[in-house]
Amino acid sequence: MIICYHKIFPVAKTHWWLTVDSFHRQMTGLRAYDVVTLDDYDPTNTEQVVVTFDGVYDNVLKHALPVLSKFGYPFELFVIGDWIGRENTFDQAVEPPCRFASLDELDALVAGGGRVQWHTNSHPRLAGLPAMEVERELTVPEALARRYGPGHLEWFAYPHGDTREEDRALVRLRFKGALACDDGDASDRHMLPRTLVFERHDFFRSKVTVRVSLGNHPWLVGESLDSLERQSVRPDAIQVSADSTQPAAVEPIIDALKSAGMDVTKGGMEDGQADGFIVRMTAGDRLRGDYIAECRIALDQTPNASSVTTDLLAFGPGIEGSRSPADERVGRSRRDGWEVYRRGGDPYPLGRGGMYRRSSEGAAALHLDQPLYELYDYDASEHILEGTYRELCRREAMTIHHRTLAQRRSKEVERLNAAYGEVVAELERFQEAHRENQAEIVRVNLAYGALHAEFQRVSKAYGLLSAELVRVNEAFGEQRALAEGLRAQAGSDGRPGARAPSRPASDRAD
Amino acid sequence: MSLSDRCEPDVVPNRTSSRDISAYRRADNYAPRRWGRTLACFGAATRDRPCYLCHGPRSSRSGRWRACALEIQTSDELDRFFSVFDPWGYEGNGEDDRRVAQMLSALPELSFDRVLDVGCGSGYLTVCLPGRKVVGIDLSPNAVHWAVKRAQRCGLSHVAFEVGSIFELSAFSQESFDLIVVTGVLYRQYIGHASVAVMDGLMRLLKPGGHLVHAHIEEWFELSFPMSRIERKTYPYRDYFHLVEVYRK
After folding, report:
1. Could you read off the pLDDT of B37-46 as tens digits, one per residue?
2. What's the CA angle centered on B119, arms B116 and B120, to 5 degrees?
3. Do residue A13 and residue B224 have CB atoms under 8 angstroms apart?
């Protein structure tokens, strides 16, 4: 996939502008892909992504480069030769004023991992231009080529996505490859398709639902929901489940959440309807600002993972009673006098945050959430833990469960399901054939019956005919005997019979 | 440096007495707009749905370009605003004295070597901050001018001011501050939708184990730093509530 950006700025003024937050979110999503340069790009490899910028405005340096440098992605800069360092006076009827990057700014972008490529001299519609003009547009100025040297200005992007056959021929002579827009052809190195990316797109593969259980601190749900609102990447859905031990206290909170448009369910921490990954938290928990983003990255990068577990900060009035020697002290709240500890290392004494994939077995969920139940709902030492709040945070020491038993079982079930499906399909095929055979048998039977009836009729007719024949033969024999008797009579009295029929002429002669 | 030591410069145009609330009223007009108060949007609004960025209705597309009214405030605009010494009416305002006191009381009890105040304005808070070396930066040259005057008047040699944008903090070397203070800056009006990049930029400047403290009007503040939060408190401020959070890298 080759993706195309134009302007990156804190506010999106038109649809060609992307906010820095959206750009950052999209680049975060690309962590699970292989971001490469155009030279290394293989259109058949769906894991590869090339990041390209058209026009190359100064805001790419100011706002996109810090993000790209953070992730260490290479990127391609398709410059419009005549407009380097100038303002966009040519399209200000439809676009707000914006300055193109100067040569110095391009240098800074190149130093940050960019490669300068060619997007014509003046960004015309090639379709309407004579060949001479097209040639001029495709020709990279000598000074620019010398400034950036080899590795740069070897690729071309068609302005407005115009890819006429005759232009392509000219492009083929000058450039290693070229990029079209959505109508490109992945098999043609000089017309590779490109995706325009807009404000709301993202590249995450995992879906995430957060379930907030009101638990034993329903009055704290405001803070936990607040921490969800402030995520750099928001979850796909937020559900609140009201499983408090004090239903009466929870009712007004549920009403308030419902009137705020939240998806509130009464009942326990059952999974309910959710796809993808689920984060479970209680009202006493908050999420660190990058929690969803970082967990998603980890999960996207590890397709086999069924869950991700994370560290947490523990704080609150009950913290001293519940802390373990392995906890690392982070600081102390001066207002409340609470210590804040980071719980790290493995195994955990109690409590852990994380996401898990919703699976029919539920094994992963059980493994992860048991400590949560212990900590917040069913533990006997509740009086100590009641006041301990947590902030789920992702830091380097994160555990990813590769192919847990549950996952393998799940794979096995999938395989069996597939085999079962095949058997069922085979059975259906067989039954279908059987039904066809039955119909054939009926048809054959019917035909047999018809034939049989015909045979009977014919047999009967044959019998009648035979009987007739016998009768006729008998009659003939009688006639013959009679005739012979008559002849014998005639021979004895010397006179031929007057009624001797059909005698041959020779017979008559004698 | 205590609150009572805070000094004012010699030349203070449009000086208002502490009881004169006109500055306060004026300041209120300039207080950051609630994200979304907008007339028309050229950006993402459709006929059926308002813009999901500015919540403004769709603008007519005829005629010249009109902004999605979410322009972030430019340096020129801020600079015009800071043509006066105290545009937000901090001086002698009890609300802002409390703000400084709350901020200072939230700081960890540590000795700080290098301290940065981002969006320092005319240095109202900056001159009170602890630290062996304190740097204030602001986008407006006028604001920095007033801040330098304030520091001179107070005879503070450890406080320095620079003109700089929160989007371009790379002028400072990485991991160079023990404490970063941000007050009333991380609103949409100034940073638009560049929250994560701005937070990254600030965090890059923090030494490992360094602290970041911010104070913002809670209703307008939409960020959460990806660091360990060790303090969160609110207190009434003017017509709103201020949120103070302390993070540790």
Report:
1. 334 444 455 5
2. 70
3. no
Contact A93 B65 (CB under 8 A): yes
Laid out side by side, the sheet with B114-118 consists of B159-163, B133-138, B114-118, B177-183, B206-217, B240-248, B228-237
Q: Which residue has the tokens 């293989």?
A: A42
Report how far apart the first and last C-alpha atoms of chain B are (Å, whole number). 26
Q: Tell which of A11, A88, A338 to mutate to test the B interface (max B CBs under 10 Å).
A: A11
CA distance A416 to chain B (A): 44
The helix or strand, by DSSP H or E, that contains position A34, with its residue range, turns out to be strand A34-35
Q: Best interface-test mutation with A: which of B70, B179, B196, B248 has the largest number of A CBs within 10 A?
A: B196
**Distance (Å, whole) CA A66 – CA B221:** 23
For residue A371, what are the contacts with CB-CB under 8 A and spacing of at least 6?
A348, A350, A351, A352
Burial of A424 (0-12, 13-18, 19+ CB in 10 A): exposed
Asked if the peptide bond before residue A347 counts as cis, ω within 30 degrees of 0, the response is yes
CA dist., res. B193 & res. A8, Å (int): 10
pLDDT digits (tens, 9 = 90+) for A251-291: 777 777 777 666 676 655 554 555 677 777 777 788 888 88
Distances (CA, A) of A151 to A2, A53, A146, B118: 18, 17, 11, 40
Distances from the Cα of A371 to the Cαs of A220, A317, A366, A378, B27, in angstroms?
A: 20, 20, 9, 10, 51
A-B contacts at Cβ under 8 angstroms: 130
In 3-state terms, what secondary structure has residue A144?
helix
Beta strands in B150-190 (DSSP E): 159-163, 177-183
A330 and A341 in contact (C-beta within 8 Å)? yes
The CA–CA distances, whole Å, from A379 to A283, A311, A372, B5 equal 17, 21, 10, 54
